[in-house]
Structure prediction request, 585 residues.
Amino acid sequence: MNTSGSAFTLTRTIDETNFDVAIIGGGITGICVAREAASRGLKTILFERDDFGSGTSSATTKYIHGGIRYLEQYDIAVVRESLRERRVLALGAPHLVQQTRFIMPAWRWSKPPTALIGAGVLLYDTLAFDRNLKAPDSLRIPHPRWLSRARLLAAVPWLDQTGLQGAFAYHDTLNIHPERLLLAYAKSAAGAGAVLMNHMRVDDFISTNSDRMVIQGVEVTDLLSGESQRVLAKVVINAAGPWIDKVLGKLARGTGVGVDRSKGVHILTRPLGGPGRVTDAVFARAQSGRHVIVSPWMGKSFIGPTDTPISGDESSVVVDPSDVEIILDTVNSTMRAEEKKLTAADVEMTTVGVRPLIRATHAKDSGSKDDGPDDTETYSASRAHELYHHVDHGVDNLWSIGGGKWTTGRATAEEMVDALLANELKGTHSRFFDSRATAAAGTFAWAEDAEPFIVDAARSMKVLGIPLDIGEHIARLYGTEWTRIANVVEQSPLSAARVVADCLDIEAQIIFAVADEGARTLSDIVDRRLVIGTLGPVSDDTLRRVAIIAGPLLGWDEAVIEDQVRHESNRRAVISMHWRTPVEG
Prediction:
């Protein structure tokens, strides 16, 4: 199946104001709901306050995985669902995923003990019984195996050898660029007719004033232009992730929804073990009980996450020095004495995401700053999702989606739209859509090895003067849409093919990001359309170069360009300065 991409709407106005479904939140869950609803023939609109995937969905560990550690909490149902969805997502976008071997070392002091770790790995493999169904060779996952101490150290030479027994090796799926995979599903939604609007704030619900609140739509404001508008919808879906309770606060009445928020931080560092020496992801568990995943990614090591509770009503979450220290201490404690330990100077950038966790029935009321869950509670909290139908609390035509994770976004969306068609939209004309066997926009072919397509695309781009490595980079990021990038290069061969900075991104991608992918700010472009913003610090010169190319398309004059560069440079500097500044005791 060859799926062509679809550009986002380029207008900032909403011509149609009556929809079947209005979605609040443009993370992976909201995007998947938009894709599912629109593909089934429902008139759908989605509003994202910032940019698509700019929150937790782009601050992941970069894996589509079953969650082997959830077995410690006996969350078998979540693991099974996640393993099923791991295969579905991989088959739907083979160019944006890669099967990666995970190594789980076992020391004499390991908790759980080695035998129990082995039992968990075996159960994980058993629950993934259909992992290779219809999978091409490149996406097939082998059974786990035991690595001897010698084989383990050959694969991961930086590990602490004291008491080291060996390791269990199993596979999970690398989500190479989560920002691009999310965009592929967003384009699928747009291609099916959904209207997707970023930088749009939902200010309030449109409702009747009676004992029962009947939701009829939402009031929104374009944060870039300041213009406000009313949009009517038969049903509204609150998919704001960790902030669903904030959205529900606009109702000024109880809804029975509680959310616990957990902060997950990752760091990007020099490659452990040296450049190119380690190709496996390592599940590094320290004697303290903490663990991090050390992944080789884009020639560096991507390490994390933390799992710490956020108490109170914080809406602005940042990386603290203590977050970075936790990760560094954890990974350093698993390294051999001869290995150069990681320090803050090795950290090139950080990411932070907020996990939406369903509040357990025994959880404390978060009315005071001391009532938040402790680290253990958020670590062990279920990653299941829950659909909240607010009719039981006197609110009609409103649903909220709680919990969930990247891997299961499609399954959550399927369940959500099934519920809509059984309730508020019962009798609405819809059509069949099998999202389990439909490729994401831009995919070369569903359930086929992407490498031959990528190689052919790179060879075709070489004719235009684009080096093979850059051509492969573009084909992997854009799939079949590489031809759109090539067209931009053909029109301006001397400029559009130039690299943006010290990476494989080229200027043509900037033009495409604005003209065809809904990018509206410098951060949209460098962090979520191109790759450069995910690789480390971005210089002011690079930001200015991006702004000069994107500016005319966005209506920016020279003064606005300089203002945008200054704003983005300051934003990035504040983020970096915050976690690099030690807290005075």
